[in-house]
UniProtKB/TrEMBL annotation:
Coiled coil: none annotated. Residues 1-21 are annotated as: Disordered. PANTHER family: LYSOZYME-LIKE PROTEIN-RELATED, METHYL-ACCEPTING CHEMOTAXIS PROTEIN MCPB. This is Methyl-accepting chemotaxis protein. Gene3D superfamilies: Methyl-accepting chemotaxis protein (1.10.287.950). GO terms for cellular component: membrane. Pfam families: MCPsignal (PF00015). One of its GO terms (biological process) is signal transduction. It comes from the Bacteria. SUPFAM superfamilies: Methyl-accepting chemotaxis protein (MCP) signaling domain. The lineage of its organism: Bacteria, Pseudomonadati, Pseudomonadota, Alphaproteobacteria, Hyphomicrobiales. Belongs to the methyl-accepting chemotaxis (MCP) protein family.
């Protein structure tokens, strides 16, 4: 817009002042709208995080609810199993205790009988010994009687006829003695056999007595085992009681988790609904911001003076200078149109944040600094001046932002901004706008949760009538 046109639109000083005031107000309105849009964008990001967190909390509550339900089912199953085990142990303990008691009584009776038999056998053995002694005495008497009868027979023979009767008696006595001796020998043999049998029986009776005593000891151990079983039943009783005590809080937890899951589900639904509203608000604020940018363009083209006029003129002049510079380079064969409009970006290995190369990057590194660097001295509010292509790719930045990358990605993000893709709303709009200029207001992230309101004035760059991108001049509000 020429000065003559501006004078026609502002015929007197008062009208010019009003037009300047309108321009300033539109500029401030754009700043406020950009600030609100930034705040809504921040809220949208926070809401999105909250939505994810609420959804995660709802999922976690669902998992905890399911786990609590499984725990409750396990508690119920365990409680039933413990109760069954208690009943079985009680029955088994009663049966074992009865069997042990009966066995102990039987063993006691057997032990007493075995000991009695052993005692009786000991007495019989003594009697047999007495009989053996008596039998031996009888045998001795029989031998002596037989000897006397023999002597009597000899004397009777000497006496002749007179001793004949005496001889008969002597022969009778001798026969009786022989019979007694034979009976005594037989009795001795029988007593020896009887003693041998009784000895073996006595050994067996002793073994039976020892076995009965061991059985009595074993029945005592069995009784102790029965007592241990009874203690185990008591432990199972306490276990069942403890499980019952634990089951009630678990059941309460299950109910509490179900309630919490319902509340978290409602919260997640509410956050999602709020997220939807914020998304709509963000879309509308961006539309309003675009309208304010178009309104600013309309005012400037209509000849209204604004506080941004100097930056607008600067951006347009430098964009035209770059357009001429690129066109001349193509005409001289310094770079081809195909290379200048290359979009096959190649990532620089190991770069963080990611840096890219295009076939025109080396060319812009040679020719753009002489155009862009002097712009930083135009006004102390200017933060940077850089050209971007239609995709928001910024090949050559100001020297202050073109440091070699290091190991710290945070430092790199602030100091190594060349060869980067800035395809956010501001960067992409600046690269693709074909209007005479585009004045955008946005919030620049300064790190640490701090933001600075910035204005970005851009103008299109064309090469031989083909739109290449735009020159961005960013300055603080």
């Amino acid at each position: 817009m020429t000065a003559n046109t501006a004078s026609r639109l502002a015929p007197d000083h008062a009208d010019g002042a009003r037009q300047s005031d309108i321009g300033d107000r539109v500029g401030r309105l754009g700043v406020e709208i950009a600030d609100v849009a930034g705040l809504i964008a921040d809220l949208s990001v926070i809401s999105q995080q909250q939505e994810l967190q609420a959804e995660a909390a709802r999922n976690a509550a669902g998992e905890m609810n399911a786990a609590a339900g499984q725990l409750g089912q396990s508690m119920t199953t365990t409680r039933a199993a413990a109760a069954d085990m208690r009943a079985i142990l009680q029955q088994s303990t009663a049966a074992v205790s009865g069997a042990v008691t009966r066995t102990a009584d039987t063993m006691a009776t057997l032990s007493d009988g075995a000991m009695s038999i052993k005692t009786t056998l000991d007495g019989v053995s003594g009697t047999i010994r007495n009989v053996e002694a008596a039998s031996a005495a009888i045998a001795q008497i029989a031998r002596e009687t037989k000897l006397l009868a023999l002597n009597a027979s000899v004397e009777a023979a000497r006496a002749g006829e007179a001793g004949r009767g005496f001889a008969i008696i002597a022969n009778a006595v001798k026969g009786l003695a022989d019979q007694i001796h034979g009976f005594s020998s037989q009795t001795s043999d029988n007593l020896a056999q009887l003693s041998q049998a009784l000895g073996a029986l006595g050994v067996q009776a002793g073994g039976n007595a020892e076995a009965a005593q061991q059985a009595m000891a074993d029945s005592g151990a069995a009784a102790e085992a029965s007592a241990t079983l009874a203690e185990l039943v008591g432990s199972v009783d306490r276990l069942v009681s403890d499980i019952d005590a634990m089951a009630r809080p678990v059941e309460q937890s299950v109910a509490g988790f179900e309630t919490m899951q319902g509340e978290l589900s409602a919260l997640a639904d509410g956050v999602a609904a709020g997220r939807g509203h914020l998304a709509q608000a963000e879309t509308r604020t961006q539309s309003i911001l675009s309208i304010s940018e178009e309104f600013m363009l309309f005012l400037v083209e209509s000849g209204f003076e604004t506080a941004d006029a100097g930056f607008i003129d600067l951006a347009r002049a430098k964009a035209d200078e770059i357009s001429e510079l690129f066109s001349t380079a193509v005409a001289r064969g310094q770079i081809s149109m195909a290379d200048l409009f290359d979009e096959a970006y190649r990532e620089i290995p190991g770069s963080d944040p990611r840096q890219l190369m295009a076939r025109f990057t080396a060319f812009t590194d040679r020719v753009l600094p002489d155009v862009q660097e002097p712009v930083l001295g135009f006004d102390k509010r200017i933060a940077f001046c850089a050209a971007v292509d239609r995709n928001g790719y910024l090949p050559t930045h100001n020297a202050i932002y073109s440091q070699p990358q290091g190991d710290d990605p945070v430092w790199n993000a602030a100091n190594c901004r060349n060869r980067r893709m800035f395809n956010d709303r501001t960067g992409l709009s600046a690269g693709r706008s074909t209007r005479p200029f585009l004045l955008q207001t946005y919030r620049r992230d300064m790190g640490g949760g701090q933001f600075a309101l910035m204005k970005d004035c851009s103008a299109p760059i064309t090469v031989n009538g083909r739109h290449w991108g735009g020159l961005r001049v960013a300055y603080r509000v």
